[in-house]
């Protein structure tokens, strides 16, 4: 990470944005990536100006987790349609906010100037610390499995300190003992002083992977697989339990209560949801956990996409507290700059919400996410393609392209961006006002089929031996004419209306 973040090309804001995405996707946590970026700014390895696009990229990267979680409901088209739309509403908001605010930041420096003004009177700040919420409960268990030496991680990321050449993150010493050293002031007097020096105690740790013969990589793979199994099992269990509970009149009450608006002041409901999302994310100290918990609830129809949208926006606000707390734990001259970049993260999300929430017309992430939900319900393989392309291939391509210099980046990137914007505008006009377009642009049928339809790719995917069961399941039902939960009787599951095609 230190090598990537110190790359000379990160001074290009587009490259910095893509690196922020890649780093967050790799560590599966925006809290971790932003904390490391904040620490590097505090150590004055990164400048605030350079770190701003990275912070924006970390916001995009964090949404990969709940998008992956939505795949646990791929077996049911209806649930998957809602779950994927609910997961990608986070993606759409983050992408739109980044596109808008990065352009504003490059042209005006708004966020940097605003936060510079705010920190001008913060010279009194001397340091802070970590605030633990749910970690108070989970730490005793996780410390029995593995313990990491954060000082080694810090030395690696900054490239400074005596531990910079350490080869393992796993703790070697968990306790320190006092070694008393007595020194005599002079040979002619009996005056002496005793000084206590803290020294590490051997064999003082007690966890499963302590002094193991496995490498850090092998331990990491074991922990990753175990964590994914626990995560998926928990989420699938949640879905099964909620599906069994969503029956009868109580289910109708729950669904209507969660998705209802406050009487007389319905506009206030969304802002309360934003506050709830921020509070819950602050408690669990992770937006990925909160949004990943929402995803299966959206899939089974308990929460609509419209209601999940403000909750997700609040989650984006709540996750900024992690970087803010990390910034206040710093020391020295870089402390103020660390607080500044943490404030950039906060105001980036606040301005994004102000752009894409208060005015109902501007809530573009909702219809965009629903369109993705429709597409993935019809072509379920598209969900995997979306994940790989948006979070790995595209950021990786831009980063590799940047190695050729800014000129190569702009020669290839600018025409691509112009083409994408043109296609996007034409698609909107085809749907809303086709009469404004020339006859040949009113549809894309004049293009070869692979350039305007996913059907040829779908046929290729279904032709694979591994998709035999999909072909059988989809026989006679290739088109998704409507999305509803088929029930013989409304009494079996009254939480879902038979004709309800809403998300």
From TrEMBL:
Molecular function (Gene Ontology), one example: sodium:phosphate symporter activity
Cell compartment(s), UniProt: Apical cell membrane
Membrane topology: Multi-pass membrane protein
Transmembrane segments: 12-31, 51-71, 92-111, 219-243, 264-284, 335-359, 379-401, 407-429
Keywords of the record: Cell membrane, Membrane, Transmembrane, Transmembrane helix
CC annotations in GO: apical plasma membrane
One GO term (biological process): sodium-dependent phosphate transport
Record family assignment: Belongs to the SLC34A transporter family.
Identification of the protein by name: Sodium-dependent phosphate transport protein 2A-like 2
């Amino acid at each position: 990470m230190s090598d990537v973040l110190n790359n000379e090309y990160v001074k290009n804001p587009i490259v910095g944005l893509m690196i922020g995405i890649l780093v967050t996707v790799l560590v599966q946590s925006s809290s971790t990536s932003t904390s490391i970026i904040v620490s590097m700014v505090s150590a004055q390895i990164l400048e605030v100006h350079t770190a701003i696009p990275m912070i924006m990229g970390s916001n995009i990267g964090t949404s990969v987790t709940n998008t992956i979680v939505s795949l646990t409901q791929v077996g049911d088209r209806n649930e998957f349609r809602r779950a994927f739309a609910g997961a990608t509403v986070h993606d759409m908001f983050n992408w739109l906010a980044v596109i808008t605010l990065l352009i504003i930041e490059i042209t005006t420096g708004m966020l940097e100037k605003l936060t510079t003004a705010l920190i001008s009177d913060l010279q009194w700040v001397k340091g802070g610390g970590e605030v633990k919420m749910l970690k108070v409960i989970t730490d005793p268990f996780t410390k029995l499995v593995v313990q990491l030496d954060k000082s080694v991680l810090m030395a690696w990321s900054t490239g400074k300190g005596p531990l910079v050449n350490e080869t393992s993150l796993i703790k070697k010493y968990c306790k320190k003992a006092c070694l008393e050293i007595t020194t005599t002031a002079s040979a002619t007097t009996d005056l002496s002083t005793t000084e206590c020096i803290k020294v590490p105690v051997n064999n003082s740790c007690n966890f499963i992977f302590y002094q193991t013969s496995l490498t850090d990589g092998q331990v990491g793979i074991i922990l990753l697989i175990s964590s994914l199994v626990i995560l998926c099992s928990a989420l699938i269990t949640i879905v099964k339990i909620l599906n069994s509970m969503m029956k009868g009149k109580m289910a109708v009450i729950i669904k209507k209560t969660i998705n209802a608006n406050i009487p007389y002041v319905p506009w206030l409901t969304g802002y309360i949801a934003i506050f709830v999302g921020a509070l819950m994310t602050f408690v669990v100290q992770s937006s990925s956990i909160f949004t990943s918990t929402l995803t299966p609830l959206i899939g089974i129809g308990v929460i609509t996409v419209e209601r999940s949208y403000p909750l997700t926006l609040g989650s984006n606000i709540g996750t900024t507290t992690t970087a803010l707390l990390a910034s206040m734990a710093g020391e020295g001259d870089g402390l103020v700059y660390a607080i500044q970049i943490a404030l950039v993260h906060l105001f980036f999300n606040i301005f994004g919400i102000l752009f894409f929430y208060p005015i109902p017309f501007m809530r573009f992430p909702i219809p965009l996410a629903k369109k993705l939900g429709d597409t993935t319900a019809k072509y379920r393989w598209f969900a995997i393609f979306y994940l790989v392309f948006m979070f790995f291939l595209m950021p990786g391509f831009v980063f590799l392209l940047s190695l050729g210099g800014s000129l190569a980046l702009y020669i290839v990137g600018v025409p691509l961006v112009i083409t994408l914007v043109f296609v996007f505008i034409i698609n909107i006009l085809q749907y809303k006002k086709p009469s404004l377009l020339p006859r040949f642009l009113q549809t894309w049928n004049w293009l070869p089929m692979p350039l305007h339809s996913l059907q040829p790719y779908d046929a290729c995917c279904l032709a694979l031996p591994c998709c035999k069961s999909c072909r059988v399941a989809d026989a006679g039902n290739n088109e998704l004419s409507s999305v509803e939960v088929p029930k013989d009787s409304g009494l079996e599951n009254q939480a879902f209306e038979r004709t309800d095609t809403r998300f």
